[in-house]
Input
Amino acid sequence: MESKWFKDYFKLYDGLSLNDEIINQLIDLKKQIQEKAKENSIFIFGNGGSAAIASHVAVDFSKNAKTNIMTFNEYDHITCLANDYGFNQWVAKTLEMYAKDGDMVILISSSGKSQNMVNAANYARKNQISVVTFTGFDINNPLKAIGDINFWVDSKAYNIIEMIHQIWLLSVCDSIIGKAEYSAS
Output
């Protein structure tokens, strides 16, 4: 019985991570990250599990791919801005404080409805900051509607969406490095 459950569960991943459209978008994202990293800043944000993905991705890009991608997941930063401007504004306020024309922001929201991510995307669009979105659930979600490059997972399962987002982001990191197997030191 449990064996069937796991087999059925992993079938939910079939076809979600790889198709020609996604591959072309990953190639485009890789090129843009490499170009932006030369003279601009790249920021990445998410909530909850997506924030953990953002932190993981930022470290791997910086340490292993030598491409600086920043996240601001420190609790003092978040709670300070959330207290002063509201939780729905802390990401936009961070961009206001640190981003400039020509920078890039990567926003991860499984539902695509997280208001702090939507507000950040709107701020970025008004200030010539490229917007890359990673979403799931409804294909017509508010965050995806704002992005320049949009990665959407056709699922309504949080863990599946988050795992695919992480696979896509880290595949770009490995692509910049040029291989999937390398020393961590």
